[in-house]
Amino acid sequence: MPFLAADIGGTHGRVAWMRVSHDAPRGIETLAYRVFACAAFPSLSTLLKAFIDAEVRAPVKHCVLACAGQIVGDEVANDNLPWPIQLTPLRHALGLDDVAVLNDFEALAYALDGPLADGGRHLCGPDAQLGGPTLVIGPGTGLGAAVHIPGAAGGVVLATEAGQMDFAPNSVREREVLAHLAPDGGYVPFEHLVSGPGLLTIYATLCALQGETPKLATPEAVTAAAVACTDALAVEAVEMFCAALGSFTGNLAMAFMASGGVYLAGGFLSSLFDLLKRSAFAVRFLHGRSARTLLAQVPVWVTEHGQHGVHGAAQWYLRHRMQASLRQAAEGGVSA
Ligand SMILES: Nc1ncnc2c1ncn2[C@@H]1O[C@H](COP(=O)(O)OP(=O)(O)OP(=O)(O)O)[C@@H](O)[C@H]1O
Questions:
Q1: Ligand 1 interacting residues, C-beta cut-off 6 A
Q2: What residue ranges define each of the domains in the chain, with the CATH number in brackets?
Q3: What ipTM score was computed for the predicted complex, to two decimals?
Q4: What's the pTM?
Q5: What keywords would UniProt list here (predicted)?
């Protein structure tokens, strides 16, 4: 039975047409795949319809969505998404029999025993896969994280909203940035600094602290200027971003005792790999923690986000919904 799998972030919608195939690796074959800019569409249904018209050209009955944010009943709650997502209207608009939704990093964690783990570049710690809980973390439009806990029948995946945890500064300069962002001591989540928009926020704040007018207007421009070493504050912003990502990753690795390792799978981290490797990431991953000995055994890799979200969503769908849908279809009914 073919089905649509989509990974919907704040910036990109990655969509695939897939089918169950016993000959394909992990039992699922990708028939078509495209990446869309979410902002170019007035709704999720129009984005998916554009894919169906271009690649499927036939009625689609089954769909799984991996979405950034929390799933509350029929809706996905996420301020980073360009439009609200409601499942029942989406099902009606596309004429679907079944639409299922899971968190986007939960989906990435379902790709862990496949291509996500295969393509990783080693960042720090031992370069060997150990057993135990494994984390997937990624700065993109937001800051996503999920954990895979091994066990019977493929183990368990937990979605998290860890990107919303309070940012804690680790240096005088970071304290200054935090004080600038929340002069009254209010809430600043990690996501406000450790994400694409967060990198721009760090840069703009460093400019403000320096009394300079920002010359760079996008996160991509900050990264490019840091890589080319053409702007000292862009270099400092990327260094602070990498250090804060190290703290965030170390916090989560400690909380989940992530002896299975960490995959950093953000949309743009690959372009920062060399800077990340030279940065304070590894120091801050271990910094001052009582669990240093455990954390020193935790491998960290950087991997592409790419198609892994749709692959993981497809694995989840196969495991949690497909068998039931196939049974119901055989009995002449449809699932919710
Ligand atoms: N080279 C880069 N340097 C810094 N930021 C970048 C770079 N390329 C893209 N970005 C930023 O990353 C964000 C998009 O990330 P990504 O491609 O992971 O999208 P997404 O999957 O839609 O995100 P999310 O799943 O977090 O909602 C945008 O804010 C974009 O400006």
A1: 9-12, 68, 80, 104, 140-142, 144, 196-197, 199, 219-220, 223, 266-268, 271, 305
A2: 2-103+307-330 (3.30.420.40), 120-302 (3.40.367.20)
A3: 0.95
A4: 0.91
A5: ATP-binding, Kinase, Membrane, Nucleotide-binding, Transferase, Transmembrane, Transmembrane helix
